[in-house]
Amino acid sequence: MSTIRTVSLVPSEIHDHVIDQLHSDLPSLSMCSLVCKQWLMRARYLSLSDREALFFVSSETLDSFDQKRATDRLIELLNSPHSTIAPFIQRLYLCGPDISHEVPDVTGPQDHYDLLNTLIINNFPLLLGTHSITISSLTWRCLQPEAKAAIGTLLHMNSILWDSTVFHCLSELLAFSNTSYPTLEKLKIRQLRVTESDLSTGHACHVLAGQPNAFSRVRFLDVVVESVLHPLLSFPPSLFIRPQNMETLCLISVPEEDFTLVGSFIEAAGSTLRHLALDVRKSTADPISENSAFSISLNRNTNLETLEISPIVVLPGRPCETSWLQAIISSLTSPSLKNVTVWFQMTPGPIDPFDFWSFEQSLLRAQLAGVPALERVRVKFIHTAWWEEDDRRRLEEDVNRLLPELRARGMLDLCVLDPPPGDEFDEWAPNNW
Q: Within 10 A of 139 (CB to CB), how many other CB atoms are there?
């Protein structure tokens, strides 16, 4: 049997178990989760990375038992005598008891919140070295002040994801962020809900201006663009997020009424912006007037390196209006731009409704005019069901036929994707989120 190299930087209480697993099942090490998938310690090629910890409290679901058991095991390890595991945990997952926020009454049972508060107060002070946290499925006002304080004392935190979280008002989030996480650089928001708007009155800016430093160091922003978050993107002035600091922007579900808001923010990011993922919800039946300009332009983003656009919905028999896409491409001026990715959502069938010829020509003109470094155009197709092999092959043949210049120059990268399991598919988190 080949010699096994000792795993470095492993907490002593799991070191022996890791070695036992290596001896018994070496090939699986690169993909398995140690230990027994319940400590959420991921192994990669004989070394540990992305050390994760889950604090889970939930109403009964099919997988809640395993997640609750993982939390119990983690807490047992953290509080065991002479434990050395805490410094190795870099990511926290705090999952509350709330149900879907699509229904009026979302707040979880009080006894679940009592348990969650206890878990946070007793264990978060042990995890001061963590760098990333996901907070999901909870109502902020159900957390005790001591629990909020414990969450806010993680001073090395540089990444946070708010997912399915309810605040009384936006200023509640800003007040917490203003006094917590001084090194926060990455902010991601999914399904943030407020029960009472503090933006409708004339003194809204005065109410919120008391938290001017809430996200002043953020350079990676990934948000679903909705009305509750407008104050974060409003420019000028931006009271909370400084667009001139942005290196990566992921803006999701941008409706037509917010094009001007988003366009101003992207323009203000200027030459700092390196990576942009833009999910534009533009009506396919409403072309841009010849006398009006599309309000999202990238001509100020002169150091842009990657551009990702999603989704373009292709429906059989319905013309796909994409003058907005050509307007974005024609506004490119970055000599550093190397990769452009465009996502298509469709069912198997003809792809003629989309004008691939104009799409290709706009990219080639942009390459000649201002983006000479463009070397890769990624065209990705997603479908709500599994692709049949014949449909996949036919789609690949059609795309290669309709984009002949890109294919001939070796610039075309075509990908046909099956639907992901559950909610695991989230392409709007590039560059090491």
A: 20
The amino acid sitting at 369 is A
List phi, psi (to 5°) of 95: -110, 115
Q: Which amino acid is at 94?
A: L
Of 191, 188, 193, 254, the closest CA to residue 215 belongs to 188
DSSP 8-state symbol, 287? P
- Cα 372–Cα 375–Cα 376 angle in degrees, nearest 5: 140
Containing domain of residue 366, as a range?
276-419
Give the model confidence (pLDDT) of 112-140 as tens digits. 899 889 989 998 998 888 888 989 889 99
Q: Are 283 and 314 in contact (CB under 8 A)?
A: no
Distance CA 222, CA 191 (A): 12
Whether residue 30 is contained in a domain is answered as: no
Radius of gyration, alpha carbons of the chain: 24
Helix 145-152, helix 170-179: angle, nearest 10:
50
Number of domains in the chain: 1
Residue 42 clears pLDDT 90, i.e. is over it: no
In a domain, 282, yes or no: yes
pLDDT at position 41, please? 37
Do the Cβ atoms of 24 and 16 come closer than 8 Å? no
Residue 105 within a domain? no
Range with the poorest average pLDDT among 40-54, 101-115, 270-284, 330-344: 40-54
The secondary structure element, H or E, covering residue 313 is strand 306-314
Residue with tokens 């695991």: 424
β-bridge pairing 132-139 and 159-167: parallel
**Per DSSP, what are the bridge partners of residue 309?**
278, 342
Residue 370 burial class via C-beta count within 10 angstroms: exposed 0-12, middle 13-18, buried 19 and up:
middle
Is 334 inside a domain boundary?
Answer: yes
